[in-house]
Amino acid sequence: MSFTIRRRTQKLLCKMNIVGIFSILVTTITCADIRLEMSKFQRIKDALQCNQLHYNKFPENFLWGFATASYQIEGGWDADGKGRNIWDTFTHRNPSPIVDGSTGNIACNSYKNFRTDVQLVKATGAKVYRFSLSWSRILPNGNLAEKNQKGIRYYNQLIDELISNGIEPMITLHHWDLPEVLMEIGGWPNEELIQYFADYARLAYESFGDRVKYWITFNEPTVICIFGYSNGWHAPGIKKPATAPYQCAHTILKSHAMAYRIYESEFKQKQNGMVGITLECPWFEPESDSTENIAAAERALQFNHGWFGSPIFFGKYPDIMKEYVDAKSQSEGRKVSRLPKFDQHWSNLLKGSWDFFGLNHYSSKMVRAVESTGEPGWETDQDNFRFYDPSWESAASSWLKVVPWGFRSLLNWIKETYGNPLIFITENGFSGDYNEGINDTRRINYYNQYIKSMLKAVVLDGCNVASYTAWSLLDNFEWARGYT
User: Fold this and answer.
1) What does pTM read for this prediction?
2) One of 37, 180, 285, 427 is an active-site residue; which one?
3) pLDDT per position in the chain (484 positions), as tens?
4) Cα dist. 176→105, 323, 382, 449 in Å?
5) For a tag on the chain, would you pick the N or C end, based on fewer CB atoms within 10 A?
6) Which candidate, 257, 247, 243, 358, places its Cα nearest to that of 314?
7) In terms of DSSP bridges, do strands 465-471 and 24-29 run parallel, antiparallel, or are they unpaired?
8) CB 264 within 8 A of CB 342
């Protein structure tokens, strides 16, 4: 079966210049905008007024652009010396784990059409393009023993094409497509991968860092560890919920710290770039103002964002996460907690390992306090029930509900929790139905509402947001959903 990928930008941006749309917005603050978690944000809520008409714009140096990922758009899965990655292996299984049986073998064929992609970005007026490197295209065996010069040349050509068209490259080192040979030694739960990732990151900095100023170590490590090693929905399809996700996260965090410190000590002074990580997180709204539900919502935020955010800012896992996983591990008769611990060396390396904080945000969930039952693991460790308000508008993706006030709430929570770090919105977007065609007014409405909420967070709440890259530039291979 063949699939035609419609190479188009988001239609909001086709109708007028991106800078003109995104830089100035008129926003009306209503009572719905003030649904902020009461224990932490009461002082923010008190400062807001209902029905206040607010005119403002984003800062002049605010960066607007688009985001993509290598496996989802590149194709060329075995071209010019590229090695196999876990998504090549996963999608080639028989029977296929992908809904429509498709693969990323060709996808948007960006490996051949990258110059066209760059012209699409340029046509919108965008100033930054976020893309990821395929680790196995550069290092077919995952290590420095074999460097694929054709793969390195491809990314050099893409970077040069972007810069020559006035577009800043923003590179993600790892967007889920781990080299298959590293999966054969256990994947991310194996701490041997720390050194492999460090070597790969150093090679990327050496090869591209003279022109690249924005680096992201990992994209959505929560998804890597839960979908890849807990429920098995994504590659590599492992189902070991009790321990594997926590081991996966521990290795990824150490790998991030190593990559950050390598840049800091070996490249930053000369290249003057910035390194961060991108975390995905919904907003979690308590079902009611009860103490139990508010605490449950905070636990959900800490088990999601805090799982990786807390070590990077504070050098340790969230206290509430340690309390719950330790207690449940003990009740299961385990002598050691399922949640690992960082020694002082790793705590020191992790703490402060950020120049900016990437955030992928799409939607929100409601939260109710419950005593979780079922198989031990990250899902049940939280003692909460997460669900969608049936009144929320839904995108084509069942998990994506339109809740713009949740975006503002989450930005405020990050500000309060981590001391207002510099934030790059690295993904935000809406999945429409194919039958909507290019008249996708629901997508336009989504972007309009979410960007307004972001503007309020920046201008009214003082959240330190400096960049926004919409997902995505191209209709692409959507992981386990294929092209559906």
Assistant:
1) 0.92
2) 427
3) 232 333 333 333 333 344 444 444 444 334 344 344 445 545 445 444 444 556 689 999 999 999 999 999 999 999 999 999 999 999 999 999 999 999 999 999 999 999 999 999 999 999 999 999 999 999 999 999 999 999 999 999 999 999 999 999 999 999 999 999 999 999 999 999 999 999 999 999 999 999 999 999 999 999 999 999 999 999 999 999 999 999 999 999 999 999 999 999 999 999 999 999 999 999 999 999 999 999 999 999 999 999 999 999 999 999 999 999 999 999 999 999 999 999 999 999 999 999 999 999 999 999 999 999 999 999 999 999 999 999 999 999 999 999 999 999 999 999 999 999 999 999 999 999 888 888 899 999 999 999 999 999 999 999 999 999 999 999 999 999 999 8
4) 16, 30, 25, 29
5) N
6) 257
7) unpaired
8) no
Given the residues 37, 74, 161, 220, the one annotated as active site: 220
End-to-end CA distance of the chain: 13
To the query of whether residue 427 is one of the catalytic residues in this protein, the response is: yes
- Six token digits for residue 127: 């100033």
